[in-house]
Amino acid sequence: xxxxxxxxxxxxxxxxxxxxxxxxxxxxxxxxxxxxxxxxxxxxxxxxxxxxxxxxxxxxxxxxxxxxxxxxxxxxxxxxxxxxxxxxxxxxxxxxxxxxxxxxxxxxxxxxxxxxxxxxxxxxxxxxxxxxxxxxxxxxxxxxxxxxxxxxxxxxxxxxxxxxxxxxxxxxxxxxxxxxxxxxxxxxxxxxxxxxxxxxxxxxxxxxxxxxxxxxxxxxxxxxxxxxxxxxxxxxxxxxxxxxxxxxxxxxxxx
Length: 255
Known about the structure:
Layout: E1 2-5, E2 11-18, E3 22-26, H1 38-45, E4 50-54, H2 70-83, E5 88-93, H3 95-105, E6 110-116, H4 128-139, H5 143-153, H6 158-166, H7 170-175, H8 180-188, E7 200-205, H9 210-222, E8 226-231, H10 240-253
Parallel strand pairs: 3-4, 3-5, 5-6, 6-7, 7-8
Antiparallel strand pairs: 1-2, 2-4
Domain AB hydrolase-1: 38-238
Protein name: Alpha/beta hydrolase fold-1 domain-containing protein
Organism: Saccharothrix espanaensis (strain ATCC 51144 / DSM 44229 / JCM 9112 / NBRC 15066 / NRRL 15764)
């Protein structure tokens, strides 16, 4: 475990595992190094890459210096890439995939990129009604209700939301409730996809829904150099043992 220092002085907690070319994993909403799919994916990739997982701003062991801006999160990723040696492959999941697109479009030293189900459409716009609802719930101290409202609004199946709320990890999700507004801003702000000049692999799950699949198709179609894959999986998720060899193949082609 170590920490990178972002441009505004914010400490960004990160973990390194494995050996080989540097690969940075960028988490989705409500996820960080201790909660989410990235630790298992890092283990699955560690025989081939030096894998860096990190806590996005406002999560886990990372700071959250105000005011928030997407640029700050791009700078956080830049700090992790610098810690990794100055350039890296990058894989992003969900809102983390869209953050990775923002970073690549702004010219970060990303050698190649992979995206798992980026929630980004042709006419992105921040959902102001959802943002206001989340702000109101958090202001009332109802952080758990804010997380549940967000999950329902983005299409998480009701049975999955109910299972999350009953799980031992629910308090950790409540602690991240204020960062949901960050993800709404990231996914609702336009990205110049034409400026993403590195090879990109866009992946979705065979078990996902039509909206997420359409978003993946749309992103892949508008990128200058994109490949498109559908892998066996569940709603908005592909198991690490299925995803890892596909990512290794994609990044291996870019070495």
